[in-house]
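For concreteness, we quote verbatim a single protein encoded this way:
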Amino acid sequence: MQKGKQHIILTKIETLENLTLFMLSICTQLQMDKNTRKLRNQDINPCIEESDASQKCMDAYNYDKNMCSAYFQRYKNCRKYWHNIMVQRRRDGVKPDMPTAAERHEQLGAIGGKPY
C-alpha cells in the first residue's frame, strides 16, 4: 500500500474513533441532564430543600462534613419519611407512588409541618 493511502485510512479510522467518542459523550451528557432534571423535579424529589441546605452548608464550611451533620440528618430523615409514604401508597395501590408536590404540601400542612 502506498504511503498516501495509509495516511488516508489512518485518518478515517481516527476520525471514526473521535466520532464514536463524541457520540458516547453526548449520550452520557443527555443521561446526566435527564438525571439532574429528575433530581430537581419537585414532584419526584420531596427533599430538594433539605438537599440544597446540605449543599449550602458544605459550601459555607469548606466541605467539612462534621459541621453539617445536622443538615445531613435532616435530609436523611426526609428521605426516610417520604420513602415510607411511598411504600405505603404502593401497598395501597395508590398511583403515583410518590405524592405530587401539591399533595405533599397539603399533607404536611395537615400534620402541622415537617415531622423530620
Remarks:
- The chain has a mean pLDDT of 84.
- The CA atoms of residues 65 and 114 lie 24 Å apart.
- Residues 1-40 form one domain.
